[in-house]
Amino acid sequence: MFLSGISPAVHHDLQPGGRSPYDGDDGDRTLVVLLTFGIFFSFVILYLVAGLIWAVVITAAAVVLSFLYLRVRRRRAAGGRLELPV
């Protein structure tokens, strides 16, 4: 299993003079770790940016609706009543 090699509790039987598969150059493992965290944090940034865009859109819509509401209210207060057909 992939995770069995990561566990410190697993003892590898080494032949005399043999090397552990995890001794020495672990550039591949470093690359995998960097890619994993890079992908993870890129998704975190993506979700934060998407949330920020969503918040800006909702706020802009609320501001526009409030200005439209105030404009209609001001017109009605000035005497230009809008009658709805029955």
Automatic annotation (TrEMBL):
Keyword terms of this UniProt record: Membrane, Transmembrane, Transmembrane helix
Source species, domain of life: Eukaryota
Transmembrane segments: 37-70
Protein name: Os05g0241300 protein
Organism: Oryza sativa subsp. japonica
